[in-house]
Inverse folding.
């Protein structure tokens, strides 16, 4: 009886959506991620493909969950993002997303591109990725270090250098940034604006509204351990208790 009631509750909840603009976050596909002690950020391609298919189904089933490019002042929709700039974003993730006609945004750290580490995009791969219809590029700091470890007087320069490097490389304007490691020291939104950005994504869990500070956009992490169903319920808002709990 209890199991049946729980199942009915879940089915009713799965048909409902909570208002807000969702920004879904992925990291690596079939690539080792430094410091990923729980194994959640290196996603198997089979897991990724299942989650992407689930997102595509949600987009068709709910008008307020259409997958949309990263833009500001949205009250609804889902935007797909990637942090760090792993090479498999181009070689493995892009084909699956393009198959479903889903746009996505990639936050790239110039230092990782320049590192020579084969896990990350090369300059030529970054340029190739930026030319795919529906793909947009943003910065992820220059050196991919927590911004609180950089002297406050040097943060604007760090952020400006990242933007200019990316603009020089792909010959397109860069106005978005994802904070490395989700580290947002006091005043970093002002530094970001001073460095020429109009959008900043943090690691605080939750949805966004037109009232959200565009330099502190909240996101939803999707993990290797998530089934397609779990990915869907995260985007429906059934995991937003994580955000509520963080406020208590």
């Amino acid at each position: 009886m209890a199991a049946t009631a729980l199942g009915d509750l879940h089915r009713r909840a799965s048909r409902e959506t909570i208002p807000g603009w969702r920004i879904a976050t992925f990291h690596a596909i079939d690539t080792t991620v430094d410091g990923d002690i729980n194994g959640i950020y290196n996603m198997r391609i089979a897991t990724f493909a299942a989650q992407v298919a689930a997102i595509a189904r949600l987009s068709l089933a709910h008008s307020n969950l259409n997958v949309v490019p990263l833009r500001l002042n949205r009250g609804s929709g889902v935007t797909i993002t990637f942090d760090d700039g792993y090479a498999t974003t181009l070689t493995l993730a892009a084909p699956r997303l393009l198959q479903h006609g889903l746009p996505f945004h990639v936050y790239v750290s110039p230092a990782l591109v320049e590192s020579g580490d084969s896990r990350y995009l090369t300059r030529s791969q970054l340029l190739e990725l930026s030319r795919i219809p529906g793909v947009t590029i943003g910065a992820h700091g220059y050196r991919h270090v927590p911004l609180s470890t950089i002297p406050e007087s040097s943060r604007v320069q760090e952020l400006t250098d990242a933007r200019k490097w990316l603009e020089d490389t792909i010959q397109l304007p860069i106005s978005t940034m994802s904070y490395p490691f989700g580290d947002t020291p006091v005043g970093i939104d002002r530094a970001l604006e001073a460095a020429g950005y109009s959008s900043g994504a943090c690691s605080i869990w939750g949805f966004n509204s037109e009232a959200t500070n565009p330099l502190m956009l909240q996101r939803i992490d999707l993990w290797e351990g998530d089934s397609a169903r779990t990915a869907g319920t995260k985007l429906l808002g059934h995991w937003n208790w994580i955000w509520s709990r963080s406020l208590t």
